[in-house]
Amino acid sequence: MIKSHRSLSIALALLCSLLPLTAEAKKLNVVTATTDMAALAQEVGGDRISVESIAKGYQDPHFVEAKPSFLLKLRQADLLIVVGLQLEIGWLPPLITQSGNPRIQVGASGYLDASQFAEILEIPTGVVTRAMGDVHPLGNPHYWLDPDNGRRVARGIAGKLSELDPSDSAYFQQRFEDFDKRLTAAEQKWDAEMAPYRGRKIVTYHNSATNFAKHFHLEVIGYVEPRPGIPPTPSHTFELMALMKRESCKLLLVEPYFDLKTPNSIGAATGAKVVVYLPSVGGEKQVTNYFELFDYDIDLLKKAFQ
Amino acid sequence: MKTKIIAAIGVALFCVPAWSQQGTNAPDANAQNSAALEQRIRELEDRVIALEGKLRTMESAQTAQPQPAQPAATVETGTQAPAQTTVPAPAPSPNEAQTGLATSGGQLPVYGGSSAAAKALNPDVSVIGDFIGAAGGNSAPALATLQPFPSLQMHESEIGLQAIIDPYARGDFFISFGEEGVNLEEGYITFTALPAGFVAKVGKMRSVFGKVNLMHNHVLPWIDRPLVTTNLVGGEDGIDDAGVSIERILPAPKGIFLEATGQLFRGDSADVFTASQRSDVSAVAHLRSYKDITESTNLDIGLSYARGHNDAGVNLLPNPEFVTQLYGIDATLRWKPLRRSIYHSFIARSELIWSQRQELPREQRAFGFYASGDYQLGRRWFTGGRFDWSDRSRFDNLTDKGAAATLTYWPSEFSQIRGEYRFTKYAENRDSNELLMQLIFSLGAHGAHPF
């Protein structure tokens, strides 16, 4: 009798231990190229997805090493969300090929290029050559830094999640609507905070703040890089200093993965403040979601402009 | 589709004054109307952007669509006589082609841009030039495997043609134009949609024996290849043969990446394997384990085995059955701090290789290794050193030794200038001191190589 009770208890314990696994198994496994796509996916996916980003928020998303450990994530993925516009062209394609996961191959149902939902700026219209540097011929890929694009991408992700998991479609839709409301409220606050600084001129290290500047009505007058992906040269740096003095530009934004030596020299020569801004969620420990990214950057800008 | 976008914009513009007029008739409702109007405009803007996105997707879908007859034709014309081939109607003009080289950028299909549509079905095309100059003395002994570079040499021009073939596979061709002629360095199809996590390749490919054998010249951290590669694994050509490869990630604990690869080749690879008859196939097996120690540091260890018939007795016996077996261990330690990944990195590499070559009058048992370290000094500057030690596969009593130091400068991601001082001490007690210079330049969309 005792034996049978013990067997029953063991069987029940085993069953209970399996139950959470069953619930876990229902979750969609989402892998994203960057933390920003992960943050947006998490907003709409809630607890019905598990999401992981390949690149870190403080890492240059153009130059990520295609480590084999990423294959372990990709081979289990139900959905791969990429920024697109060739941002990940230098590292993601071999990972997709080697993953052995048919679901996330380009064109398959588990492959989502989020750029299709966003307003893309700076799409070159003429002939594109590498004399222009490491230019993105399909447009500027840093589009998530416009909250309106964040909303559009989140809507697109919600649609894709619903397609992959129709039973949770209403949940994803409700999550998106909630995100939309919170983002609209946050946008009003951010717009109001940035309103006094409309038309202010700024310089960035890399051409990553175009969408951000458009949304908050800032004017980017130049870049520390002479051309995208080309390290600063003395002649370009002198030209940029002259331009900043001429245009009374008092703020230089630097992405966290660039060296501060040249920006600091420019700042010293022109009187401009040099600020390390975050282009991505996770650029600093405290910036853990899409809202905190804008909170952080806008706070930085306000302090710098004051 | 463009008409629809224009229509949507038109509707938006038409609606703005109409709502504004209504607002003037009811002043109390002004605030509400203005909010509704703003919301409506935003919705219309979103719709226009969504339509633009769909347009870009449709254009890219043309690229990704399966076109069974097209790829073969493209490859054929591309490899035979590109200048004289009759080009089908949608082929781009020279200007468009130039744009396309810049726009296509790698292995994925493109996602927008009018120029991309014009070359929708063409593969990504790239050319990598490898120019080498050499100075100093190197009078290699007659039996030495290592041969000196000429004073000036357009060492290699590698043309890459890469595209997704259909929803199930992609194709990669690398054609090498050297001073000795044209060679298909690699040309294979990769099946990416196999069940159970398998990835298969069929065609001609570099085998997965160790690390250096897999590398194309332009991704080597040195101008030359290590002595052990030259003496035991066929040097620059290496184990590069027609065959079938299958790989799969294996389950492993504690976040360890474990991958097994098995390859079967015809059995003809440089000086390493020679097939006298159809059954003389060669086989290569590789087990790779990889672990992230921290987010900046990782360790990569591999075990390799290769077996095939060699050329001993080929001219003396009708069906010689002399076999060469190779065993290898490779280890790579990488460090790259993520916040400053474009400025600093360090890679330490080593490969140990044992060769057992059956021949008359006795089996030759040779061993060799190299150990190297490469440090990135800044965004554009790299330096490194390498130590070589290797027996010769046909004369295991002869051991060559060497050392090399490199300094590399990158004007951009698409070109590099490298200098290398190389010291070689041949087994025959002859020394050589050389200064090598290399210029590598890349045109077009060369897909990223595996890590």
Task: Describe this entry's structure for a reader.
The complex is a heterodimer of chains A (306) and B (451). With 306 residues, chain A is of the alpha/beta class. Chain A has 2 domains: 26-187, Nitrogenase molybdenum iron protein domain (Rossmann fold, 3-Layer(aba) Sandwich), CATH 3.40.50; 190-305, Nitrogenase molybdenum iron protein domain (Rossmann fold, 3-Layer(aba) Sandwich), CATH 3.40.50. Helix content of chain A is 45%, strand content 11%. Chain A is built from 10 helices and 8 strands. Chain A has helices spanning 2-26, 35-45, 68-74, 92-98, 147-164, 169-194, 210-215, 234-246, 261-270, 290-305, and strands at residues 28-32, 49-53, 79-82, 111-113, 201-204, 219-223, 251-254, 273-276. In chain A, the strands form 2 sheets. Chain A has a 4-stranded parallel beta sheet, with helices on one face. Mean pLDDT of chain A is 91; it is low at 14-24. With 451 residues, chain B is an alpha+beta fold. Chain B has 3 domains: 2-64; 66-122, no CATH class; 126-444, Porin, CATH 2.40.160.10. In chain B, 21% of the residues lie in helices and 44% in strands. Chain B is built from 6 helices and 16 strands. Chain B has helices at 2-25, 30-64, 69-80, 94-104, 114-118, 227-232, and strands at 124-137, 152-166, 169-178, 181-191, 198-206, 240-250, 257-265, 282-292, 297-309, 323-335, 345-357, 364-376, 381-392, 395-412, 415-425, 431-444. A 16-stranded antiparallel beta barrel of chain B has the order 1-2-3-4-5-6-7-8-9-10-11-12-13-14-15-16. In chain B, a hairpin with a 6-residue loop joins strand 11 (345-357) and strand 12 (364-376). Chain B starts with a helix and ends in a 7-residue tail after the last strand. Classes of the chains: A alpha/beta (306), B alpha+beta (451).
